Predict the structure.
Amino acid sequence: MRYLGLDLGTKTLGLAISDELGIIATSYKILRHDENYESLIPQVIDIIKEKKIQALVLGLPKNMNNTVGERGEVSLSFQKRLEQETGLPVYMQDERLTTRQAESVLISNDTSRKKRKKVIDSLAATIILQSYLDRREKEE
């Protein structure tokens, strides 16, 4: 099963794609938006068709005390719209600290600040998707 991982930010949507077996996540691309999340749906649908995606994994930003705040509510709303428009399941994955993890990886690889800004969201989406795939594998 091929998955599409999504990291919804205030200005970008980071994307990652799994292999056909649903084992390994790879950074794919970043879609830019101006907080008009509806504009992202047709672009995501095009990617779903092109890459033969069968399920989506969307990062759920939670507060450190495990509550869902304003950004989490936005993600949950986006989840519902994606499910309605695509007909595919959209699984939620806790994304606490994924952006920090992504930044640490990029810094340890001596990636310049300018380049980090360009790829951090797709790397965060990769971490979100890989976390989901690993968790799913353990549960099976």
Q: What stands out?
A: The chain is about 50% helix and 25% strand.
